[in-house]
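FAQ: What does a ligand-bound record look like?

Like this one, built around iron/sulfur cluster:
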Amino acid sequence: MSPTPRPGAPSKEGPARPPAQDAPPPFLRVTEIFHSIQGESTWAGAPCTFIRLTGCPLRCVWCDTDYSFHGGTKMSLDDIMARIREIGCPLVEITGGEPLIHRNTFVLAERLVEEGYTVLVETSGSEDISPLPAEVHTIMDLKCPGSGEVARNRWENLEHLSARDEVKFVVLDRADYEWSRKVIRERGLDRRVRDGSLRALLLSPVWGDLEWRELAEWVLEDQLPVRFQLQLHKLIWGPDEKGV
Ligand code: SF4
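The answer part, i.e. the structure of the complex:
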């Protein structure tokens, strides 16, 4: 399958460039590749291969993957693809860190789409998502104020989301909940979920900080068209386990 551009993406057409001679193979820095149960989003519960890339320019106060900020192993895209084929799972998620800070993430996503994988990309929403192929299911955070990174939200990304994509809010407290509710209503995300131009809105409590029941009751009270979610992998393997 050839990847297609997503809504509003700038054209990639330009003058043809000759292939670089002796250019090193494209690579990415990888924190871990593992096979697990998808813990979040509308894909929760499905077996999935995760490619966790290294590096993130954000510092959310409740981040649970800070081990991906540094280090990692440099892997060529060919080696990553070989590992994905070896694992053999049709569902693949590219995550981080923040995967979209690397140009080659877009190339990797294209290669996975071309080989027929169902591809999820989880992003903080701070980088331009428009170069991702339209076939990719983007799960994009909108950072709430309690994360400390609300200023990093790239609001233009909302125009590039399609019926395949999901928006996630990680909620620390009542103030974050009210902020999320306002954004959902004022940006018309509730309408987009109802008319099918957005796949889902996800609300997650910050693990260990907000009572699950409290958030669930707020959602019910306001009749928000969202999916309350918990991180299923943490329920299965415990909150501190890596590589699951
Ligand atoms: S964007 Fe994700 S990886 Fe980066 S600091 Fe926030 S939660 Fe952690």
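Follow-up question: can I read anything off the structure? Yes, for example: The chain has one domain: 27-237.
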